[in-house]
Amino acid sequence: MSKLKTTRRAALGLVAAAAASFGLQANAGGHGIDLAGKTVEWIIPFSETGGSAKWANFYAPLLSEALPGQPTVVVKFMPGAGSTKGANFFQEQSYDDGTLIFGSSGSTQFPFLLGDPRVKYNYADWNVVLASGTGGVAYLPPEMAEKMNGLDASGLQGEDFIYGNQGATRLDLVPTLAWEMLGLNVESVMGIKGRGDGRLMFERGEANIDYQTSSSYLKGVTPLVEAGTAVPMMTWGSLDEAGDIVRDPTFPDIPTFKEVCDATEGCETSGEKWDAWKAFFVAGFPAQKMVFLPNGASNDAIVTYTKAFEDVKARADFAEISGARLGKYPQMTGDKAQTALASATQVPEEAKAFVVNWLQDKYGVSLK
Q1: What is the DSSP letter of 155?
Q2: pTM here?
């Protein structure tokens, strides 16, 4: 187990306490910070080709305009160890003057949830100022897509697939578990530094199945679909108010994994495996990307960044420009971001136990 400053149970308690007190703190009289003439460094723990890069590069100039003093916001990529390298670096930093922020992703959250021994970071030490929901789309080469019968993926069960995988304990466990549930034989090539690198493997013919988060799919895969070299297979879906999986609002014409599973013999949308898949989907996508200030951030800094992101969301053109770049998903600040953080950093013990055993059986990864 990783040696965090507190146990994960204590961390979750601290997250919940922060959610309860944030509103009071935000109104307690902070006057904000001035960042005139400064450069804000935004650490992204992935390569510059994936969805996190596109998300940060979308927000960076807007954040620069919205922050007091209009500082330069520079995105710095720090890939390695499936994002734990950059997250561990951020954990070692303490608040100074508001010029350092961090962009987390589901692939950063999952190792924390699963007790990956490389994790030295603790979400309870950080200060969330934005939580962004997203989705994901799986896609195939056209010759493979033709083997599906409508939503039924049974025709793919005799094929051999190659997938570029960031790591067993990363967000990629959502697609790999889904494909296993569909009865597909997918071999993972481990250790890619970002999902954009997986897309490049697909483009070069080194992989024949892939998935991208929505922002990367919109920019990087849509041209492949238009060119006829990629065909969408399914999305992971979205959650409605009742917590049920429905079609992704950004891709309403693409069926969900739940629909494909229901149509494919041998795949079940109930039971232990389904419950585990859904739990990690919920932890990984509705609050898939988050922005944090480091440990020790002042209330003034938290209020300043929260207001800046709220001002960005209030732009008259925000719905249009964000929909085209990020998709149609919630962008949450304040109490809603705190609630999203809590949901993204906890899963039921039964789901965690299932995934821990599955990772051992499938990849020989021991987290016990």
Answers
A1: G
A2: 0.85
